[in-house]
Amino acid sequence: MTLEHFNQATADEAKKQIAHCVALEAWAAALVVARPFASLDDLLRAGSELARDWDEQALSLALSAHPRIGEKAPGSSKEARLSRGEQQQVSSEDSELRQALRAGNMAYEQRFAQVFLIRARGRSGEEILTELHRRLLNTPQQERQEALDQLREITLLRLKETFNE
Ligand SMILES: NC(=O)NC1=NC(=O)NC1=O
To answer: How many helices (H) and strands (E) does the chain have?
Structure first.
């Protein structure tokens, strides 16, 4: 997808092209309305700006599209494919790590009543597990902010990759 194509597409087509970035319809619609963008940097800046006011409700909506860390997203949707790609470094061969991630996810969900969300790309399974253990010690308020920051990182990464394909 080129920026030119995105700028000139119909609103529906443009929304479809970025729907996989995050499961928040309003964010995609607002970004499409803000076209045309003079550069990819302008687009990414707008995407980031529009994500600043995401709140708890946005987070819980978006989490529905993010499988647990260490679990392979099923299906052939673009989100599922992206998620599997983002998590590829979470070495699923290491059963001890996989077991520790599963236990950590369960503890996290017990404590915060939502899926643990982390920008997995570029992070090893061990790094993710360390972050999971650190964040388990957060207060709910602290954790909401951290989870929202991770959602923004994943979304902007996916947006950037959409135009680097
Ligand atoms: N629960 C998660 O953190 N999921 C994910 N993190 C990513 O970077 N991609 C995902 O699907």
So the answer is: 9, 0
